[in-house]
Input
Amino acid sequence: MFLQIVLLIAGLALVVFGADWLVEGASGIARKAGISEFVIGLTIVGFGTSCPELVVSLTGAFKGLADISLGNVVGSNIFNTLLILGITSMIAPMAITRVNQTRDIPLVFGVTLLFILFGLYNNDVSRLEGIIFLLVFAAYIWYCFKFTPRETDTDTTEKQLKLWKAICLVIVGLGGLIGGGQLFVDSATAIAKMIGVSDKFIAITILALGTSLPELATCIVAAAKHKGQLALGNILGSNIFNILLIIGASAVVTPLSFASMNYVDLGVLMLSTILLFSSCFVAKKDMIDRVDATFMLLSQAAYMAWLFISL
Output
């Protein structure tokens, strides 16, 4: 037990330090390259923090376990929006740019709705639909780099970070996040089994939190450093990666049956995107403020309560 507790603490420490290095490195790359922090958060950070979901879902697809591939993405996107974005916006309300309003958030809403409609129409996500997701993903990433305005850096402190050092920080930070997250999941699972907690309880709590731990740590650090666009890009990027890339690639490997999906999970997934979209227009416009965050966190709490009741 003592060893598992030490490993748990070590995993959390790796996640915290990894998140700090990742945010610093990603910001440094953005400043040097003149790319917006949002695009860096959307691509480098978003993809990096989605690596655990990518591995889990593709492994499930290769083994023919569609419920793992789908459940992992649905659960992760709900956690990302309701819990992580909610906590981050409680710490520091996030500004929403005009581009976020007209391009990025509507895309998250649209692909989430399309994912649900594809699944409910034929009770699966087919290979053709997976290819459609991958093509949309490629077009969106190209569009972001091609048409997002470049930024000039007026912060001399950020400029002192050399490009090679920023890249190294990103690589080491991602390694710390992924390795620390896995160490946390393994040790927490071992501790839970030692005290007699059920496997389903472990899956709903520890594993769900563990795969979302990189996004949570990265967003909290970004919010604390007043880099709201990096945090928002991380969440939107992760959600887009999860559906378009991970579900798309998994469906190409094998069609993903929706038989294990229930209407409550899909309804909460859609609700999370509706709350994200509505935050552009309610309470403080052009900002995810603490009122929006409160609704997100209450929705997450209600969903978790339902999960525990239905055990």
Notes: The mean pLDDT is 81.
